[in-house]
Each structure stands twice: as structure tokens, then as C-alpha cells.
Amino acid sequence: xxxxxxxxxxxxxxxxxxxxxxxxxxxxxxxxxxxxxxxxxxxxxxxxxxxxxxxxxxxxxxxxxxxxxxxxxxxxxxxxxxxxxxxxxxxxxxxxxxxxxxxxxxxxxxxxxxxxxxxxxxxxxxxxxxxxxxxxxxxxxxxxxxxxxxxxxxxxxxxxxxxxxxxxxxxxxxxxxxxxxxxxxxxxxxxxxxxxxxxxxxxxxxxxxxxxxxxxxxxxxxxxxxxxxxxxxxxxxxxxxxxxxxxxxxxxxxxxxxxxxxxxxxxxxxxxxxxxxxxxxxxxxxxxxxxxxxxxxxxxxxxxxxxxxxxxxxxxxxxxxxxxxxxxxxxxxxxxxxxxxxxxxxxxxxxxxxxxxxxxxxxxxxxxxxxxxxxxxxxxxxxxxxxxxxxxxxxxxxxxxxxxxxxxxxxxxxxxxxxxxxxxxxxxxxxxxxxxxxxxxxxxxxxxxxxxxxxxxxxxxxxxxxxxxxxxxxxxxxxxxxxxxxxxxxxxxxxxxxxxxxxxxxxxxxxxxxxxxxxxxxxxxxxxxxxxxxxxxxxxx
Amino acid sequence: xxxxxxxxxxxxxxxxxxxxxxxxxxxxxxxxxxxxxxxxxxxxxxxxxxxxxxxxxxxxxxxxxxxxxxxxxxxxxxxxxxxxxxxxxxxxxxxxxxxxxxxxxxxxxxxxxxxxxxxxxxxxxxxxxxxxxxxxxxxxxxxxxxxxxxxxxxxxxxxxxxxxxxxxxxxxxxxxxxxxxxxxxxxxxxxxxxxxxxxxxxxxxxxxxxxxxxxxxxxxxxxxxxxxxxxxxxxxxxxxxxxxxxxxxxxxxxxxxxxxxxxxxxxxxxxxxxxxxxxxxxxxxxxxxxxxxxxxxxxxxxxxxxxxxxxxxxxxxxxxxxxxxxxxxxxxxxxxxxxxxxxxxxxxxxxxxxxxxxxxxxxxxxxxxxxxxxxxxxxxxxxxxxxxxxxxxxxxxxxxxxxxxxxxxxxxxxxxxxxxxxxxxxxxxxxxxxxxxxxxxxxxxxxxxxxxxxxxxxxxxxxxxxxxxxxxxxxxxxxxxxxxxxxxxxxxxxxxxxxxxxxxxxxxxxxxxxxxxxxxxxxxxxxxxxxxxxxxxxxxx
Lengths: 541, 541
Fold this sequence. Notes:
The first copy, chain A, is 38% helix and 21% strand. Chain A is α/β, with parallel strands linked by helices. Chain A is globular and about 70 Å long. At the A-B interface, helix 5, helix 9, helix 10, helix 13 and strand 11 of A face helix 5, helix 9, helix 10, helix 13 and strand 11 of B.
């Protein structure tokens, strides 16, 4: 291990995807894994394979499609999470073994409160289980990571002992999580320093840090851990994750990048892709990024937007510590218009990092021309909305054929929808609601007949201007759809996000709702197995 | 000054309100000041009075209405920002002098890059200006705060000298800003420790810290400054502010509160009001809070939401370091239904902290009954949306009488609107657009005829369920509407936010757009002076 290099371990697809409403389809997970590989992360934690057959299959596909180099480059390590049980470890191995560089990540809690109330195990039982399970994982896989859960609140002496056992048993990376986001930077740095000093055999392993943001200190704690000797940081895009989330990849990477004299540490991240990956993850998960989010918020570089900023532009360091170009936030926004051809579109998509096949390009070009008829200039953001809407949808079981809506202050908002069902039959339904979206959703419900609760509904304009595309993200919760949480070991209600984009926000709302319903039907196996490749597109009426 | 007490200096209304799109009406500012006083902040920085006559007037109103105790309690200090010029200091004094405890806060940059490129002043000139202007401010006001701008990048020796001069000249609080969010916690702590040790006369002053979040480290830096001896923290609600924002009040307060053994420091904040104030500021500024935001994000306490969480509930400390009740996030959400009377509504509003007059209660009760006819249960969030929509609107110049919309996939989305103008005349206009909102806004534009650019458009469902109220926030930028930025000293384009709530999101969109247009017309003086009290409500059709 190079002493001046910090490995970036991205857990967007595992700890991030566990957060309420962040559920992604397997196709979305695969696409996120692809962009993470292109971003330059060292390790992708692709999921928790024991949670369900779908989760296992999603990790397996990522191991095959992203974990095997097809162009001579070094692929990222593909990692699967496992509780410290034989079954979980076997499932994780089954999922990751196809990758060129697989890793099993197993964990067991070491704090008194977790051992007593959650595990109901004594210290000796914990030590023995760690030894056995790391040995077992290592018998399957060369690369084994072990995490003492809730390390931030564990007795340090006991922690050194457990870690030493894990190292003896064959663990190659020791990850120290502040599971509940409780520690302060000084404390967490001291914890890592103590581990470096007191754990037998630690000099041959990589120390990793995994922080949570409950007190707003995840980035500071991660940096404190790195200063104390950690050389792997576990992070997520946009800091998504349970509760207040995980450490944000973009913050840690840009702190190391902006303050080289303080750290003298490199990462493998291509920072110019950060803004695009942030947007993609926000679209797929439906978890918005607030405008004042560090590095990736819409206002993070807002000084650029003003018009009377001569002084600023001449000496941009007056109020700016990083350039927007560095994180890919300032690429020219005005790209294409109604006279742009298929070639120009394809060139622009390639420069944005999308490598589409001919059929997909044709499909997108058709949507592009339709949009260009309505909107003067088509920006990168518009193209990304079209791609999400067109290419990264779940398998289309129910599809929208037509929608007609009347609403306003005069009362009785009414929607008529025509849907095509999985067998190809058309259904028509009219419904009255409290507003146009309510009426539309009620009409869809009357046809689809799958009980669910709408948990979140958000509309954003993609760009400035009143003629902008509207993107709608919704989150629904099925009545009988549960998933196992690795840490609490209880089944949590599973929620499904949906996405739709259209210049008509009611049409976009209908598409987003159908997309969430299709995702739920596929995931609960109500209509055959999960599909992986970018699938059929939503048909345009 | 008590050694074990940290003063909370809230600058939501100054540094927060400067962020793009966060512009608030004077009525909204006054309401925010009221809830900040109730929250228990020690100092309210109410604005930058030299920016415009409106800004001065807004600060003056806050000084009078919030800065004078009317019930025997100790009111917060009301502070106004001023560059280090006689004119700015006079304007600040004119605005804050009515308060029982006024403060003038003046600043001048001390970093080489700012002195050379922005101020074009030598070190000696800077020292002299600081001395003169602090003396002048002190001649008007007992309580004077001085900030060396960009202290984080200033030469420490020079900084000690400037601060020493400010103290000799009469400054009572010395605020150390990390203006560009560049420092790391260790560095910032060391900067404060150096100031404590090397600045002549510092022992009689309060040291304050003011951090920015460009690298995600604002909270950690603020806490490091406090550990090193600072006893005032400058913060904003939700961490709003320019670029990646300021330090979030809720994170600093909850870190001190959650880790008493580490800090041993108290604040005057009533933490149980944090969630409500966060929501109010988000509504008024239109700046959303991401679900994974620490302390105030929708998911911050998401473990509570699950249904199969016996283990969690029995031993909630397993995965939880603070209780949602502590920040007021878990009050029962189900409050009222269609059979609830006016008395029940008023009681609920009072317990939520809204003290409305009879006329306002009547007005709200009417909206409440209309909503209860459409929606089964009315939650606190619904009530807050109605209050924002009904009571905290700008003076209504143009008002919506009627709206009728047809849209869908069949083409030609059409909107017809009827507006009442400031003279009471009715105007009707039909328009075609790319979607229902575009058509509606084009029809409104054709009547109002005030050129503007729509910068942001967001719709949120207030609660779960397809029958939820939709709240729309928009942000527009007028073509000739500029405002002076205190730091860059250039005129920035001013943007105006608008808010509307309705079960019909197209109606809510129309109301939000009119609210932003009215705000812009009032602020640019196109229709008489700014109004302060909670004003006429949007009429219901």
C-alpha cells in the first residue's frame, strides 16, 4: 500500500441505497456502478447479497459487468457486505466471485450496548465468532474486510483485541465505523491513532474509516481518521445514507485536493466527473441535493452566475477556493438547438460520458427533436433528464398511452388515462381528484389495482425558463414489500422511487408514478424476474 | 461573560438571506426574527442596512418589534452589518438604535489577497481605517463587533495587531470569519488559540467564530474554535448562506447538547423548536433541506418511521444518539379532521407557536375547512403550508381570481386566467404553452407585463398520500433588480421567491408565481412602499 494514497471505498449502492426511498432498480445500480468505476473509485460496495435474491443478483451483475476489465484498465474491487454468519458470507462470495478483484466485507458489533441488546453475546463469543467468520471468508476470498460495528462507542482495549484476532484470521482491511455519528473529530482521530499503536499486526493491513453525519461531522471525522493513519475512506455520493447519511465522497476528495500542503495525499478520483455523478445518483434515488450542499449544491459556485462580477473574475481566489471546472460544474450549459443533428447529439452525449448504442441513440434523438420543437436551447441537464426518462426505466409493465386532464380553481379536477397492460391490452379510466395529479393517480390505481402509499412527490424544473422540462420523482411504499436491514436485522418496509420528465408536469407525474409501480411489481416478482439491461423505453403518446 | 456559555449569533437574515434566491419580504423577515427570539438566540443579525432603503427599514422594524421586550423577558441583541465606512455605520445605527440592546457589526478584510485586489489598501491603511471606524461605531453604540474578513487566510501576526487596535478602539466582540470555507478544524482551532494568546486586551472581549461550509467542515471548524476559547458562534438556520452556506445552527447546538462531557458548554437555545424554525425558514426562502441533512433532514430520525422496530424502540440508543423529541421532530403528526372546530384549530396553532388574531384565525379556519373536505386528516405540516400560503404573503398587487387548465399527452396545453390588478380591475387571458404551468405563466405574463426569468420551480407534497397539499416555491429574477453585496461590493441581480399551496399543483403554481411577482413589484417600488404586517391574504376563488 502506498503511504500517500487514500483508497476511496464507495458504498452508495449499499449504505446509501439503504436509506429510506433510495431503492434503485438493478439497471440503475449497474449504471451507478459504471459511473463510479469511471469516476475512479477503488472499491465499490455493491450491496448486501443476503438481503434478498434480487440484491444478490444485482451485486453479481455488477461483479460481471463492471468488475471484469474489458479494455485493459484495472477494474475496481467489487465488494459485498455480510453479517458474521456462514450464510451471509457464502451469499456475498456467490455474488462477488465473478469480479477480477472480489472482496467480502463482514462485520460484528463490539460496543457494550450492541453486544448486550442486539447480539446478546458475551465478549468471548464475539471474539470467537469474528475469528471463525474471518477465517471462513478468507478461505473463499483473498481480500477480506472486517468492521467492528459501533467502534466509536466500543471499549478501546477490547477493540484492539478483536481487530488483532481479525488480522490473525486473515483480514486485509480493518474498517472503523462511527455507526451512530456520535464522535467528534479529535476523539475519532485519537481512536484511529490508538488502533495504529496498539493493534498487533496492523502494520500489514489497511485501516479504513466509515463515518455518519448525525452531528454534521462526518467529513471532519473522516479527515481526522486519515490524518491519524487511515488509508481507506468509506463514502457515498451526495452523502446519502441512513438517517443524516454517510460521509460525502465529494467533500473528502475535494478537501484532500484543495489542501495538498496539509495532507499530501492523493486519490484516484477524476474530480471533473463529480458533478455529473452527483446528479445521476440524485435522479435515480430521488434524494434531492440542497442548494447549499458543499461541492455539489446548485449554489456551491454561485458567484459564477452573476453578471456584474468583473472583480471576482479577475481574481477569482478572492472568494473561491476551488474552480467549478475542477468538479465538472461549469461546463458550457448551452449545447444544442432545434437544428442540431443526430451526429451533434451523439458527440455531445459521448463528451458527457454516455456511450449509447445505435438504437438507444435513435430513441433519444427522437425525444430530443420533440423537445427542441418546444424549447429554444437544450442543455446538458435536459439531455440527462431525457436519458433518465428514456433509457433507465424499469421494465415497462404498464405503460402510458394517453392522458387528458382538466383542472383549475373551478372545481372537479378530472383526468382520463389510457394504459397498456403487460399483456398489451388497453384500459381507459376517468377519475376526479383533489388536483390534476391526484385525479391522474386515482385513474391509474383503478386500472393497475396495486395498493400503495405515495410517500413523496417532488417536481423540479430542469433548467431556467418557463418552458423548462419538469422532472418528477415519486416514492411509493407497497403494502407487503419488506427488505432485511443488515444492521438492525429487522425487515424494513421497502419503498420504490419513480422518475419521469416532460414539459407537461402532469404527464411527467403520470410517468413517474407508473415507473415506481413497475419497479415495485418487478421487485416483488409479480411480473417475472428482474431485468438488468437498459430496458424498453417509455413509449411516447 | 460566563465561561461555560456559548452565545448563538444568528445571521439567517443577513448572510443567509444573501444566498441566491433566499430573498425574503420584510414581513417574512420580521416573522423569522420573532421565531428566532422565541428559539432563544442571543443575537439576531437582522440585515445589511446600507444595501438599500428597504433593507434598512426591515432591520429597523425588527429592532422595534422584536428588539424591545414587551413581556418583561430579555430581548435578543439586534445587530446590523456595516462595511468600515461612516455611511454604512450610520445606516446600521439608524436601523438598530431602536432596540433595547443594539449592536453594530463592522468588518474589513485583512488577508493579503483581499487587501491587494479588493480593497487596494496597504496594511497601514487597513489598521488606520479599523481604528477610526470602530471608534466611530463605538461613539454611537455601546456594543460593537469587528470582523477581520478572510481571517482564515490572513497573516496571524498582522491579525493580532488589527484585532488589538479594534479592541483599543472599543470593540466588544471580535469575530473571526473563515470567509471562504478554506480551513481545516485543527488549523482553525489553532488560529483561535493564537488569537487568545497573542492579542492584547482580548481577555475582556468575546471571541466569535464565523465559518463557511465549502469543504463540508463548517460545523467542525466552529466547534474547534469554541474549544479554543470562542464563546460566540455565528450560524444560520439550515446552514443557508452564500455558496455552500454558513455553519448550521442546529448542528452546533446539538453537538454541544449531545456531548456535554466533551464541551461542558450551554446555549440559550430551546432545542424543541429547532424542527419548526427549520421548516419555516425553508418555506420562506424556498431553499429546500435535503432528506439526509443532519438534525433537520426528513430522514434524520428515520428509524422511528419503520413498523417492525421493537428492538430499536426498546433500546433506542442502539442506533440513535438523540431523540427526535429533543429537536421537536416527533410531535404527533395526526391532528385534525373535518369535524374539528375553530377552537380545536386555534388550540393546535397555539401549541405550534402561532399566536394569531381573530381575523387571521377566521381566515385560516375557512381554508382549513375547505382542505378538510378534500383530505381525511390535517397534519401540522398542512397547517404550516396553509399559514405560509394565507398569512405570510407579500402585499397582494395582482391576485388570482380564476384559473382553468387543460393538458395531457394530446397536445396544446391551454390555460385561462382571470387576475385582479392593483386598481381592482379584472383581466382575462388565455394562453397555450409547453405544459400547464408554462401556459398559466404565459397568460399571467401577458396581463402583468413585468419581464422576469423563472430561475427555479419546485413542487413538494406536504404530506404522504395522493390527496396531499402541494406546495410550490418559485424563484424569479427581475431584469432591472440589483442589490449591493456587502463583501464583493458589486451589485448582484436580486431574485424573489414565491410560495403557494393548494391540492391542485397548477393552482399552487399560479399562486406562487403571483406571490413572487408581487414581491418583486413591491421591492422595486413599482407599487408603493413595502408593507410589514402580515398582509391581506390570497383570495380563494
